[in-house]
Write a structure and sequence with these properties.
Layout: E1 6-11, H1 18-36, E2 49-53, H2 55-64, H3 69-78, H4 80-83, H5 102-112, E3 131-138, E4 143-148, H6 169-176, E5 186-190, E6 193-199, H7 209-217, E7 232-237, H8 248-251, H9 256-282, E8 284-287, E9 312-316
Parallel strand pairs: 1-2, 1-7, 2-3, 7-9, 8-9
Antiparallel strand pairs: 3-4, 3-6, 5-6
């Protein structure tokens, strides 16, 4: 009798384009409902870890909470104005402040991630039906801070005064979505120290798929799931996007604002592509669009033989400026 593989579902950051990710997740959910002949099946019934960065962290948290994909999408479309409430009337000095109000999106998270008695749900909540990985950046220390609900993780020891499991889920999501200029940083207290956190996209892990696979398997992370093509399945979902081009007329200029508008998106996109590439190198890549014209899609064994590959991997994404737009995405 075969053993059921461990499954990871990973979601990129990308703001409101998370709605694109939800279309892919909905199709995956539908396929599992058909396979198990269960109309009420949710992805938390079949996946063992959800990982996300920024908007991906929001999706991952709701799915780990046991929410159906259609209901998550409904929240995005019906509560978007609440989540992204702008600062009050325009004044010149508001150019120096964040575009959106932190209290609005925080209230949205607080209202959904609560225990039955009305208290804020913590990362160690039993209402999380699967493991959850949220990527943030600690602006105080200048380091990426991926935090998971793995009870055996080093900093999830309940005896510690700064145990990560005691952090409210709403606050972790606020931190992971605190995109500079859009939202102010989130201050989180751990033990007797306070730190400022910003958007997890300001790390190499805007695409957290590789990080999730490593946290699931490397001994220091204390989860140690088995590796192998039949033992671990990783699905990575992007938010769509477009290639970051610098027009020739701008390339010859030295205006700082023009450079910033190009450099930041370019770095984020390239980091995500690199994470995707490494997943294809380490795993058995069954599906994914072309990485570039030289590498192709890496759907054949690369550095590792089939027996050595660490997991089965698929990547679903679509560049909005490509000929693939409008084609059916069939997980």
């Amino acid at each position: 009798m075969s053993t059921e593989p461990k499954r990871i579902l990973s979601f990129d950051g990308g703001g409101i384009r998370g709605v694109f990710s939800l279309q892919i997740a909905a199709r995956i959910e539908q396929l599992f409902r058909e396979e198990y002949d269960r109309k009420d099946l949710v992805l938390a019934d079949v996946y063992h870890m959800f990982a996300g960065t920024s908007t991906g962290a929001i999706i991952a948290a709701f799915l780990a909470w046991g929410v159906a994909v259609a209901d998550v999408e409904a929240l995005y479309t019906s509560r978007g104005k609440q989540m992204f409430a702008r600062q009050l009337p325009y004044l010149p000095w508001r150019l120096l402040k964040s575009k959106y109000r932190a209290d609005a999106i925080a209230a949205f998270f607080r209202s959904h991630f609560v225990e039955d008695d009305g208290t804020p749900a913590l990362l160690g909540s039993t209402k999380l039906r699967t493991l959850l990985l949220v990527v943030m950046r600690n602006a105080t220390t200048g380091a990426p801070w991926p935090i998971s609900s793995n009870p055996r993780a080093l900093f999830n020891d309940r005896s510690l005064p700064n145990c990560n499991l005691d952090l409210p889920i709403w606050q972790l999501l606020r931190a992971s979505t605190a995109a500079p200029t859009f939202f102010p940083p989130e201050q989180i207290t751990l033990g007797d120290e306070s730190f400022l956190f910003v958007d997890g996209a300001i790390t190499p892990y805007n695409n957290p798929a590789l990080l999730a696979a490593l946290m699931a398997t490397l001994p220091p992370y204390r989860l140690e799931w088995p590796t192998g093509r039949d033992a671990l399945h990783v699905v990575s979902i992007g938010t769509g996007g477009h290639r970051t081009h610098l027009a020739k007329r701008l390339a010859n200029k030295t205006y700082v604002w023009d450079a910033l508008r190009f450099v930041i998106p370019a770095l984020l996109d390239d980091a995500s592509i690199n994470q995707d590439m490494m997943c294809r190198v380490l795993g058995d890549s069954l599906h994914g669009s072309q990485l570039d014209s030289e590498l192709g899609s890496l759907e054949t064994p690369t550095l590792l033989s089939s027996a050595e590959q660490k997991f089965t991997y698929v990547r679903y994404n679509c560049m909005m400026d490509s000929k693939d737009v409008g084609n059916p995405l069939t997980p």
